[in-house]
Design goal:
The chain has two domains: 186 residues, Rossmann fold (3-Layer(aba) Sandwich), CATH 3.40.50; 104 residues, Rossmann fold (3-Layer(aba) Sandwich). The chain is 42% helix and 17% strand. The chain has 14 helices and ten strands. The protein has a six-stranded mixed beta sheet. Strand 7, helix 10 and strand 8 form a beta-alpha-beta unit. The longest helix is centred in the first third of the chain and has 15 residues.
Length: 311
């Protein structure tokens, strides 16, 4: 049995560049983007920072693999499968719905992940206490990682991002900044940033999923588990009618933003969060002179699925 290699995981310290963004709609707001999409071609975005603590825990337990959950376009499973291939450990994905072919699923198979399709009803059982029992009997020496790399370990893995930003502020000519702006899918990265900031700056989470997906409750639970108070963040609706829902205005905004800045976006998270910022500025909710860090959370393989569905 080959266990997960702790030394190799600890030796990898990806760094993301911080870059200024200029849009005509910023109206005096200063914006910089933390390019987590550039840390690696495959293990991209915030997914690595959420995943790494789980991998270290698995290595400490002598596990030889990771089993986790996600959909047919899951950025989390994509990063997990790529990490398994990179660091030579086994991965198992439990997928929502019925078998389907997507660019992400093709990558999961190419990276060597063992896939199991749960249907929609079966996937809804994932929060039940006994859900993992048969799977961990089948994969007895695997560690189960929550959907999206969530949980307190995943949040703590993102708590170091403020330090990554602070080291790059002088290159921007900034001596400080006022807050963060990012898409929220499970709330794990947002909670980690709140922990890392320790109440110094506000973290704004643009919800890429409807409110009834439980993100507010998840963030409160993570902060309570970490012994943090309830403040330091703000959630706003940005899902535009549902998770993965795309409309003409969003796609036009994404294309225009990319043409103007050269920053690649995807329609499920980053484009929705950036459009939500523009709308907040237009409503007068973000004052001129505010300096914000926009987090590029990666997930650019989702562009392949969007292009395929548009054809």
């Amino acid at each position: 049995m080959i266990s997960i290699p702790r030394a190799a995981i600890d030796a990898w310290h990806p760094q993301a560049p911080l870059q200024r963004l200029h849009f005509d709609w910023l109206a005096g707001v200063e914006l910089a983007v933390l390019r987590l999409d550039l840390i690696d071609p495959l293990i991209s975005g915030n997914k690595w920072f959420k995943l790494a603590p789980h991998l270290r825990r698995a290595a400490e337990q002598g596990a030889r693999g990771i089993i986790s959950l996600g959909g047919a376009h899951s950025n989390h499973l994509h990063a997990l499968a790529a990490a398994g291939q990179r660091f030579s450990f086994a991965t198992v994905g439990l997928l929502r719905g019925d078998p389907q072919d997507t660019p992400t699923v093709a990558d999961l198979q190419r990276f060597g992940m063992q896939l199991h399709w749960l249907g929609y009803g079966g996937y809804r059982q994932r929060h039940r206490a006994a859900f993992w029992t048969p799977w961990l009997a089948r994969y007895a020496d695997f560690l189960a990682v929550p959907e999206g790399g969530g949980g307190l370990p995943g949040a703590l893995g993102c708590a170091g991002l403020p330090a990554m930003v602070a080291s790059q502020l002088p290159a921007l000519g900034w001596d400080d900044y006022h807050g963060w702006w990012l898409a929220a899918g499970t709330g794990t990265t947002l909670a980690g940033l709140v922990m890392g900031e320790g109440g110094q700056r506000t973290v704004h989470g643009a919800l890429a999923v409807p409110l009834d997906h439980g993100v507010p409750e998840q963030v409160r639970a993570l902060l309570a588990e970490a012994g943090r108070g309830p403040g330091g963040y703000q959630l706003l609706e940005a899902c535009r009618g549902g998770f993965a829902r795309q409309d003409a205005e969003l796609l036009a905004f994404m294309a225009q933003s990319e043409a103007q800045t050269g920053l690649p976006l995807e329609p499920l998270y980053t484009a929705k969060a950036l459009l939500a910022l523009r709308e907040a500025i237009e409503r007068g909710e973000v004052e001129a002179g505010t300096r914000l860090i926009f987090v590029h959370t990666g997930g650019l393989q989702g562009r392949c699925a969007a292009a395929a569905s548009a054809r």
